[in-house]
Amino acid sequence: MPALVRAQPAVPPYRVHDFDWVDAQRSRPVPSRLYWPADLSPTTRVPLVVFSHGIGGSRQGYSYLGKHWSSRGVASLHVQHVGSDAALWRGNPFGVVGRLQAAAQESEAMARAADMRFALDRMLSDETGALGAAVDPRRLVAAGHSYGANTTLLIAGAQVVRQGRTVDCHDPRFSAAIVISAPPFYGEADLATVLAHVSMPTVHVTATDDVIEIPGYRSGLVDRLAVFDAIADPRKLLAVFQGGSHSVFTDRSLTGGAALNPKVKAATAELSLAFLDLTFRGSDAALRRWQADWQPILAKAPGAAFPARADGRTAVSDIAWQ
């Protein structure tokens, strides 16, 4: 397994830019934080990940991903969703559950997808100058954790029908998706229909103890596997870590176990880049190295702590596309 403690350079190999954007058409702030690779050649074209946080998060969150990706040449734009961000934790503590439930409504889900589109628009506009000009439009990636994973899937083509109307938030500019701990779509039993239009490479990351639990709601690993299985596009990968927690993928440092937590974070960040190598360069070398390096913390099926799979796959589907 790779060493987790490395000497830190005096100057980080990335830069951080904060944008306090406002979508005037919706009267909605869209604050965002950009992690950008340092010391690039003027002619370098940079892949860009647009990241959506989980419920109660912010643009400051998931910094380990932004730092890791950008230090290896992949920019990461972390979008804050003001209707479901850290403000939910402020105020009367007895009202937290109600605020969480209110933030998990369909109107906010669609607003989050619009936030992602708007942030990408701004990033690619003249407003960001040389940064936006350096983004490679052929290598745009949607990503997110938990509620942000649902947002990512909506951007990637997931559709639901409400009152006879199809809710379609697809942004065709994105060509790959990183889906971390995706909950089921609320009220949707037929996930195959919801996800039928997701037609891009996806990588799915979860853990055997990846459980969301609030009063009146519980979602565990079975739901994460159901989302993965429902996507028909064969260009998909699955990683399941043994143990962990739902919030082990956030910046929290102890959840899921003090020893396992940093390993899951490092493995998730590295898997994302190996997935991009496979997607954009057609190379599975990094993915093969990743599986060998991190096998000790991966769950296996059948006979592991999650439901056995009839096909006997290990936690990473087949190395290369399934």
Automatic annotation (TrEMBL):
Claim: Hydrolase is one of the keywords in the record: yes
Pfam families: PAF-AH_p_II
Keywords on record: Hydrolase, Lipid degradation, Lipid metabolism
UniProt keyword annotation of Glycosyltransferase present: no
InterPro entries given in the database record: AB_hydrolase_fold
Organism (species): Ideonella azotifigens
SUPFAM superfamilies hit by this protein: alpha/beta-Hydrolases
Record-given protein name: Acetylhydrolase
Top-level taxon of origin: Bacteria
